[in-house]
Amino acid sequence: MTMNLLVILPVLIPLVGAVIALLWRHKRPLRDAWTLAVMVVSMLASFVLLAAVWQNGSPLVYQSGGWPAPFGISLVADMLSALFVVMVQVVMVTGVIYALGSKDTVVTYPAFFTFFLMLVTGLTGTILTGDLFNLYVFAELLVISGTVLTAVSDDKFGTEAAYKYFYISLLASFFMLLAVGTLYVSYGTLNMADLGAKVMADGERPLLWPGIALLLAFFMVKSAAVPFHFWQPDFHAAAPTPVSAMLSSVVVKLGVYGFLRMTTLLFVAQAPTIRLILLVAGVIGVVFGGLSAIGTHNVKRMLAYSTLAQVGFILVAIGWGTQLSIMTAIVFAFNHSLIKAAMLMLAGYVASRASVKSAAFDIVTGVGKPLPLAGVLFFVGSLALAGIPPTNGFVSKSLLFSSGINSTFYWSLLLIGVTSIFTLMYTIRAFQRIWWLAPAEGIYTKPAGDNLAAPVLLLIMIVALGIWASPLVTAAQEASAWLSDPSVYIQAVLGG
């Protein structure tokens, strides 16, 4: 029971921290130090949770209020959820560090860090919950926090982007509630372990496929996957840098996590059809996202379209459906979170040093000339995004192609292999414009801007996981092995 209490800590710590940060909202130095301390402690708790789950050899389950499943709300940490929580918390710590060194006015607002910690709470909760309705509740907390943090952005388009995000999220919530209703009417439960067991035991009931379609649409919106990608570029380009870095790196992984749960726990018999849909959507995302990133006019928009393409690679890996490809999807998701957060922070840093604060290429062209350290970091990040050694992106891409050869869907491997070159094209193009070309007339580099500490930390991790990838790969391999046998999760939650 003591070990099971570890499951709730990564959710409880930022939640309590958010409340206290609100009480100290007018005492900025104390509030800022408190927020960073809370995130570091929460991150350490997530590492302890991962180690405990791994050592235990089976999922740890916290039954809220002492009610046994499926009657109460379960919080469940298996290798997949524990590893994803570590991913979220590590990136969120760097987000706080970047915000503390940011020149954006928004980070000085009294409630900024309260909503940031609520963002952490919502995302961590969606990953650890073992109940579909509770997942919906945590996802709503995530939406509210993300909407507020974007609406108060220094960017003049922040409010417009927040409205777009809110209304597309409202549509996603509608999908989720309908899915909850159809699945509950069909099987009488919303506990994920119980639902998975009943779907396997009772077979397909009339409302099962509508429920699957609605749940699939919900997670596609959350991951900004094709065809629900259209809101993402505006939203991520207008959000404050510390927020957009989180939204485009770890928040979109909620969809990835959902797809993994759908195909390995909830709907195992129906998984081949779901995976085929994800495979097609992933290939389209890789092609469309890469081409759109090449043609865009703004560094942040370029990286937002890049997320569409990179998530596409992950969906393709899930779509292949082998144990190796599932492991690849987990490794790719983890590595991409670090890379994308670092790249967006570097884009924000360059924009903060431009005489007119903007990430538009017309403004930032040539701004990087007096910023060699940022240039080196951006170049390494570009290599990582394109999958070139010695970065963790190379590990992701090499595993992806290995698992593709292992699968029978060679057409998809060929398509994503050819279009992978797009990533190198748009990142090197951006590097060349910012650090090599001359700035436009009237544009100059300001002597001060955002702090580089957070992207430096992320780039260190990116290179370290490229050189020494075995800890992450081994953990992902273990998670994939657990996912191949849904009875491990089901028995841990329901007993027996």
Structure description:
With 496 residues, this protein is mostly helical. The protein has one domain. Helices cover 74% and strands 2% of the residues. A two-stranded antiparallel ribbon has the order 1-2. Helix 11 (253-266) packs antiparallel against helix 12, helix 14 (323-353) packs antiparallel against helix 16 (372-386) and helix 14 (323-353) crosses helix 21 (470-483). It is globular, with a radius of gyration of 21 Å. It starts with 8 loop residues before the first helix and ends with a helix.
How is this structure best summarized?
The chain is mainly α and 496 residues long. The chain is 74% helix and 2% strand.
Task: Report how far the terminal alpha carbons are from each other.
Answer: 17 Å
Main sheet makeup: 2 strands, antiparallel
**Number of E strands:** 2
Q: Please indicate the count of domains.
A: 1
Q: What is the overall shape? A: globular
Q: What's the pLDDT, averaged over the residues?
A: 90
H/I helix tally:
22
Oligomer designation: single chain
